[in-house]
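Anyone up for a design puzzle?
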């Protein structure tokens, strides 16, 4: 039975499984159970752990996802690099449904979500100027382009609280700030990964133009799930290719994010 992994994948809306021949393991955390059982298996020569972000039955809305438990569970079984597929809306007319964005920046517009592990016994300040792993980003971009996927290298993901979608005014405001895509789950997932010194890479699939970009009735949840389902095989292929291309030894700054910082407790 495989109970350790060095790469983690957190699946988004419509992405509820990854490896067919996988072991299910229950992982306890100080923050309660993760979104679902963790499945661990092999992709090529790499050992990979998978968690469906919303649960396999999509029971967790974006603002109720146990983000802290999910990332802690992955680290506790050995994961140090995380790939995070998700569905997003585009704030740019030129990036339509089907485009893949590998963002390099993030804007947090959530409210009320716990966004740190270090909320007791002293302050811990972790650098977050560049939210995503540069190595993971370059690997993902190369893998996507090798698969002839229309890929946007860089861009800003704005994360909203949800579960509602944006108003047209909000969407136009986001676009006027130069932001690229909008989603509901990219934060606090990314900062929690950084607080655990994990590499974190967002694989953002555009499923729709956001409300302020095009006229019409606006996006619906059913449309997002339907479009992602149509592309889930392609996303699995991308994840598989990226997993096998990630370096076995990390040389990026993500792994040293906590160097020189006195932590209030030991990490798993």
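Challenge accepted. My sequence:
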């Amino acid at each position: 039975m495989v109970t350790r992994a060095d790469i983690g994948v957190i699946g988004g809306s419509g992405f509820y499984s990854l490896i067919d021949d996988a072991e299910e393991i229950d992982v306890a955390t100080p923050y309660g159970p993760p979104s679902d059982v963790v499945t661990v298996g092999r992709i090529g020569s790499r050992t990979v752990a998978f968690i469906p972000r919303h649960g396999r039955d999509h029971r967790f809305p974006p603002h109720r996802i146990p983000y802290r438990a999910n990332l802690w569970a992955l680290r506790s079984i050995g994961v140090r690099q995380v790939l995070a597929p998700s569905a997003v809306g585009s704030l740019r007319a030129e990036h339509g449904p089907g485009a893949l964005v590998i963002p390099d920046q993030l804007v947090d517009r959530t409210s009320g979500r716990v966004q740190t592990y270090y909320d007791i016994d002293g302050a811990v300040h972790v650098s977050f100027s560049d939210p995503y792993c540069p190595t993971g980003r370059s690997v993902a971009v190369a893998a996507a382009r090798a698969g002839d996927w229309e890929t946007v290298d860089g861009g800003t993901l704005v994360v909203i609280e949800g579960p509602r979608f944006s108003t047209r005014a909000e969407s136009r405001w986001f676009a006027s700030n130069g932001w690229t895509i909008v989603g509901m789950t990219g934060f606090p997932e990314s900062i929690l990964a950084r607080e655990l010194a994990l590499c974190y890479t967002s694989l953002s699939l555009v499923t729709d133009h956001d409300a302020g970009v095009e006229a019409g009735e606006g996006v619906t949840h059913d449309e997002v799930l339907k479009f992602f389902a149509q592309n889930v095989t392609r996303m699995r292929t991308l994840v598989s290719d990226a997993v096998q291309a990630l370096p076995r030894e990390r040389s990026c700054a993500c792994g040293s994010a906590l160097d020189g910082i006195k932590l209030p407790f030991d990490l798993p």
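A detail worth pointing out: The domain at 7-249 is CATH 3.40.50.1580 (Rossmann fold).
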